[in-house]
Amino acid sequence: MKYKQAICLGALVMSSAALAEVNISGFASVVGGQVLEGSGVEEFGLEPTFLADYPLVGAYTEEISFEPDTLFGIQLSADLLEGLSATAQIVSRGANDFEADFEWAYLSYEFNEHWTVQAGKKRLPLYYYSDFFDVGFAYPWIRPPADNYTWQIFNYTGVSVLYNYLIGDWTLTGQAYFGREDDEPNKLLSEFFFGEPTREIWKDIGGIVAQLNYEWLDIRLTHMQYTNERYIGGEQVEWDGQTERDGKFYGLSVNIDWNNVLLLTEINRLTLQGDDLDTYLVTLGYRFGSVMPFVSYSDFDDGNEIHNTTSFGVRWDFHPSAAFKIQYDDVSDEGVGAGTEDSWRVAGDSKSISLGVDLVF
């Protein structure tokens, strides 16, 4: 796989260079951490664990590790002139044994200054930080709060239409998209929840995003719906006798960046077969020159799986392109049925510390 990726990347660079300029940029995070104390989940045989990254099963234990949050990424963008461009992003993550994978690979065509159409593989724009989830330099935390950024599917292949307009002093941007994702084996479901190869299919994915920005205020609204199929160990899963289930996702984020104050909020709801899964986060930070301490709280609740995280951290922008961060996370896992085979606990309670450097280049 790595050799194929290298060949594809080389072909893209050489063919594009003959037509137009190729821009190369990158980002990286080098992070270490460990669990200071935790309960684990005895009924699952799980040791004290902090699940920092749900989709990629980036988990810390009581032994210090630099793998769960460490990553390196390269993005190539080729301007093919007359509105046409090609973009590819390759990311190597410690949580994936540093294997390099294509996260983005799409073509863009700009019709005019307001409308652009894209086709290919992209990040599913569910949350405010979805598009730049891997770029740690773009946000205050070590990683976006895991209680809120929990989903097992985070990419899709399809088409999207992007738009942007000025409305008085406001900027309106967003996109409408349609596609599907067939992930086999799905890392989160296979390695953490079910313990055997799991194929997760999201089809007929359709959504819309609208974002309004006015100087210090940023408001984002999003809606998505999809149809889910799942296979565990090769056997198709049924829900209430049906092999498919439909989900609808709604999200709202309101962010304020005013003088030295940073306030980030996000609330989401997934309606799945008549049941609601709710998540939210609130982060408050204050800048003292190049240093910003912050406090954050995030929560996940679907009536059975219930957990929340309180975080304290400091970001220090010691370089125009690099930031040092340190963060303490206190997780409370209140899933029902603790101590039984029907437990809904995920990783148990934990207290952990992590620190590292994020950079862009």
UniProtKB/TrEMBL annotation:
Positions of transmembrane segments: none
Lineage, top ranks: Bacteria, Pseudomonadati, Pseudomonadota, Gammaproteobacteria, Alteromonadales
The keyword Signal belongs to this UniProt entry's keyword annotation: yes
InterPro entries according to UniProt: Gram_neg_porin_domain (IPR033900), Porin_dom_sf (IPR023614)
Keyword annotations: Signal
Chain segments annotated as coiled-coil in the UniProt record: none
UniProt name for this protein: Porin
Pfam family, one: Porin_4
Organism: Shewanella jiangmenensis
Signal sequence coordinates: 1-20
Domain Porin: 13-348
